[in-house]
Amino acid sequence: MKRIAFLLSGAAVALLGTSQADETKVDFNKDIQPILERSCISCHGPKKVKGKLRLDTKELAFKERDMPAIVPGKADESELLHRISLPAGDDDIMPADGDPLTKEQIEVVRNWILQGAVWPDGVVLGKDAATIAAEALPEAPKATPDETKALQSLEDLGVAARPIAMNVGWREANFYLLGTNVTDESLKPLKDIATLMHLNLANTAITDAGLGQVKGLVNLRRLHLEKTGITDAGLAHLKGLVNLNYLNLYGTGVSDAGLKHLEGLRNLKSLYLWQTQVTDEGVAALKKALPELEIVRGWDLTAEVKKEGDESADDKKEEKKD
Ligand code: HEC
Q1: Confidence of residue 90 (pLDDT cuts 50, 70, 90)
Q2: From ligand 1's centre to the CA of 33, what distance in Å?
Q3: CA angle, 82 as apex, 76 and 83 as ends, to 5°?
Q4: Is residue 7, in this structure, part of any structural domain at all?
C-alpha cells in the first residue's frame, strides 16, 4: 500500500513536470474537435474533400502522404500547423475561406501536436445531431421485396422515402409538399415500409380510413397529421404504434373521445392539439394515463404555463435518472 502511494506521488510529480513544459494538457474533445469541426470539416470531411485531405477520423487525418497533415510530436513537420499559421491573406492559408484561426487556437493546435496529437479512438468529427441520434437507433430491418416495391410506388407518386440520416436504414416520408393531391389511395404502399420512422401527412386530403395503412408501422416515431380531415375514428388506427413519440394533430377534428385511443402509447412524448375539439377534461384524462406526455394546446397563456410546468417536471426526472 505504501509502495503504491509512493509510485502514485512519483507519477504526479512527473505529470506536473511535463505540464509545466508543454503548458496545459490539451484535451482533444474539448480543445481540438471544436476548432476542426467549425473551421475545417466543411472542406475536409465526408461531404467535400479538398486537397485530398479528410480530417474527420483519426485514420484519415494521420494518413501517410507527401506532406503529412499531422505528425505527432513534430510541429515543424505537420502541414496542418504550417497552413493555419500562415499570415492572413496568404494563398495557402487554412481555412481557405473565412476568418483565420486566432493566435490562441493556433497555439492550442501546436501544443496538441507537441503533446503527441492524442485523438481518442473512435471519435468521428462533423456529425450533426440527427446523425448522432440516428446511430443510437437499433439497426433497421433489411428491406423485403414488398418494401422495395412500395418504395418505388411512392417514388412514382413523387414522394421519396429517404433515410433519416447517413448510413441508417430507417426512413422518412414526406407527403406534405404534395398537399391535397395526396388521398387515401396514395397511402397504400405505406403498409409495406416497415423501416418507416418519420411520416408527414400534414395538409393532405387523407381521411380516417386512409390512416388504416399505418396501423402496422410499429417503428413509427414521428407522425404529422396536422390540418387533415382526421377525426377520432382515425386515431383508433394508431393504438398499436407503441414507439410513437411525436404526434401532431393541430387543426384536425379530433375530440376527447379520440384521445382515448392514445392512452396506451407509452413512448409518446409530444402531442400537439392546437385548434382541435379537445377539452381540459380530455387532456387531464390523457395526462393521467401518460404522465410524461407534453401536450401543447396552443399559444394561449394557460397552455404556455402548463408547458413550462411540464418541462420542469421533465428536468426533475432527468436529474433522478442521473
Ligand atoms: C473553404 C474550404 C476549406 C476550408 C474551410 C479548409 N480548407 Fe484546407 N484545403 C482546401 C483546399 C481547396 C485545399 C487544396 C489546395 C491547397 O493545398 O491549398 C486544402 C488543403 C489543405 C491542406 C494541404 C493538404 C495537402 O497535403 O495537400 C491542409 C493541411 C489543410 N487544407 C488543412 C486545413 C485545416 C486545418 C483547415 C481548418 C483550420 C482547413 N484546411 C480548412 C480548402 C479548405
Answers
A1: very high
A2: 16
A3: 165
A4: no
Q: What is the pLDDT of residues 43-70, one digit of tens each?
A: 999 889 999 999 999 999 999 999 999 9
| Domain match, 111 and 138 both | no
Angle at 48 between CA 46 and CA 53, to 5 degrees: 80
Say whether pLDDT at 253 is over 80: yes
What share of the chain has pLDDT > 90, as a percent?
Answer: 75
Describe the strand order of the beta sheet including 171-174 as a list of residue ranges: 162-163, 171-174, 196-200, 222-224, 246-248, 270-272, 294-296
Domain residue limits at 58: 16-126
DSSP state of 22: T
Report phi then psi at 229, rounded to 5.
-85, 15
Q: Which atom of ligand 1 is nearest to the CA of 79?
A: 29
Residues 80 and 136 in one domain: no
Tell me: the pLDDT tens digits for 156-215? 999 989 998 877 899 999 999 999 999 999 999 999 999 999 999 999 999 999 999 999
Report how far ligand 1's centroid is from the alpha carbon of 24 (Å).
Answer: 27
- Alpha carbon nearest to ligand 1 atom 20, residue: 51
Same domain assignment for residues 160 and 42: no
Q: Looking at residue 83, what is its pLDDT?
A: 98
Q: Report which ligand 1 atom has the smallest distance to the Cα of 97.
A: 1
The pocket around ligand 1, CB under 6 angstroms, is made up of: 39-40, 42-44, 50-51, 53, 65, 67, 69, 79-80, 83-84, 92, 94-97, 101
Q: Look at residue 320 in the predicted model and tell me its pLDDT.
A: 42
Tell me the residue length of the chain. 322
Whether residues 186 and 310 share a domain: the answer is yes
Q: Which atom of ligand 1 is closest in space to residue 69's alpha carbon? A: 29
Q: Whose CA is nearest to atom 32 of ligand 1?
A: 80
Choose which residue among 71, 94, 109 to substitute to test ligand 1 binding: the one with the highest number of ligand atoms within 8 A of its C-beta.
94
Domain end residue (candidates: 126, 155, 175) = 126
Residue at a domain's end among 108, 126, 144: 126
